[in-house]
Amino acid sequence: MENAYKETMFILKKYNISASKSLGQNFLIDDNIIENIVEAANITKDDLVIEIGPGLGTLTARLLEKAKKVIAIELDNRMINILNDRFSLYENFELINEDVLKVDLKKLISKNKSQNVKVVANLPYYITTPIIMKLLEDKLEIQSITVMVQKEVAKRLTAKPGDKLSGAITYSVNYYCEPEEVVIVPNSSFIPEPEVESEVIKLNLRKEPPIQIKSEEIFFKLIKVSFMQRRKTLINGITNSGLMSKEECKEILDKLGLDERVRGENLNLDQFAQIANKI
What are phi and psi of 229, to 5 degrees? Predict the structure, then answer.
């Protein structure tokens, strides 16, 4: 932890700044975790890396050594001066001062044509899900997303559909990618220390979805309504949403050999696909 810690303390003192609570900032100071992230991302000299939320640039420095190019997207204006001071002389560094949710990533990737595009991010807890879903739903030409998130969220993102830890996002993630857990990150790996543990996970994008569906819109709407009221049965969730009548729903479940009292959280990806295709 020694080098990253010293470097972080030096920068915070030099620029007279501290972590922003409103932006959910926690600065990573653990050299081992930084190496874990870089190794998991498996970055080579052919890769374009998009780093979301570089902060002080502790991880950015390692990414620049490994990648063909790093495009860092940072919202906090205070970090822009620091990042420019540190990396403006690097020919393979580009900095964008913007909210990643407002960036046209498809255009950005197209403009920086590279064989492999990988996303690396240390995400604020409050905005993890919207960012991950944007990356997946935009169907970007990316190979993988290596990301640090709250441990509880990581477990949900990497769960298998139908497990007790699964939620609506579990099904979306498994539709688009093959998730894997990398390493648990203790609170002490950050300044300031967050109240909860974190975890690094990697989402490997699939070339093709694992199931055949007729309408993604219906499929994802079905999953969403099934988890909006977890204690309700699947039939109640579907009929309350207006997707179909109770009788039609019972008929479909019967044909699929599913109990009428089944809940959405008990289904796997293929079962949701079959119901969506029948709708």
Answer: -130, 85
The per-residue pLDDT for 43 is: 95
Same domain, 142 and 230: no
Clarify whether residues 30 and 135 are in a common domain: yes
CATH number of residue 271's parent domain: 1.10.8.100
Among the three residues 205, 232, 264, which one is the final residue of a domain in this structure?
205
User: For residues 157 and 150, what is the distance between their CA atoms, to the nearest angstrom?
Assistant: 10
pLDDT at 2 exceeding the cut of 70 = no
Are residues 8 and 132 located together in one domain of the fold? Answer: yes
Give the structural domain span for 161: 2-205
Are residues 162 and 27 part of one domain? yes
- As a whole number, mean pLDDT of residues 128-153 equals 94
Q: How far apart are CA 194 and CA 261, in angstroms?
A: 40
Give start and end residues of each alpha helix (H) in 15-127.
31-41, 58-66, 77-87, 105-111
Q: Higher-confidence residue: 99 or 18?
A: 99
Could you give the 3-state DSSP secondary structure of residue 119?
strand
The verdict on residue 210 lying in a domain is no
Using the predicted structure, report yes or no on whether residue 24 has a pLDDT greater than 80.
Answer: no
**pTM of this structure:** 0.93
Q: Please report the pLDDT score of residue 230 as a whole number.
A: 64
